[in-house]
Amino acid sequence: VRPLILGDGRSAREAAWRFFASYGVRSTVMDKKCSLGSLFCPFLSFRRLPPTDSDEFILMSLERIAEKNSDMTVILIPTGDLYRGFAERNLSALESRFIIRSADTVCNVTPSQKYKVKD
Prior knowledge:
Blueprint: E1 2-6, H1 10-23, E2 27-31, H2 36-39, E3 44-48, H3 55-68, E4 74-78, H4 80-89, H5 91-95, E5 99-100
């Protein structure tokens, strides 16, 4: 399993933490900018997306990751309004390559069980 999180910030780090705490798996976080909090997280690695809001460029970046990890199940977790909208607009293209989950449902953790990650 390979968690791939779109967006950077508290929600992304929280989802990465849940995967790491539950399964010992490091997540890949992708966004146009890397926050200082993500730079030093031992449970995630960061990959920069092209500095554009174009769905085509984001899809191309995701396709490259899917090809490199063709032997794994890749779980795509869009965080933030920008990436949730991207996932909704491109659902049919994404569903063929990824399992798509919301940050709130990752690892079956209910809101009362959330680990608080500081920004």
